[in-house]
Amino acid sequence: MNRFALIIAFVALILFSSNLYSSTNRSKLESNIVISKITDPSEVTRIIKLTLVDNMFLPAEITVLEGETIKFVIKNGGNKKHEMLIGSMADLKKYAKIRRMFPEKDLSEAGLIQFEPGEKKELIWKFISAGTIDFACPLPGHFKIMRGKIFVEEK
User: How many domains, the chain?
Assistant: First the structure.
């Protein structure tokens, strides 16, 4: 079995295991980015503001440096409920599928953040490796167009 098939099998096992929501580390297999969600605000090196408006993120593309710990200050400036999740596109598609099948399922432990109109929240992430990682609103009807990318550049 080649390495890619092993990685896919491992990801599927993780996603469908009962420990899916207890993990604090996520990885993007396509570009080998490991993203760690941290809780210590003292490690923050930069603040990036994001606005969710109906059907888009502003900005939709973000550039960070390898090793940076970013505090995202995220505001829902739209008139609809929105969500934000950071991960590989494959993972985001899986969560969007779960959202379509179970729109009321609580995915907050998986790193998903929910926003009511006008609500503001913060999220702290450390970007360990260079590459590209995606973010999206996995709600039904939002996912296909409400997406963005984080480009992690080498130091």
Answer: 1
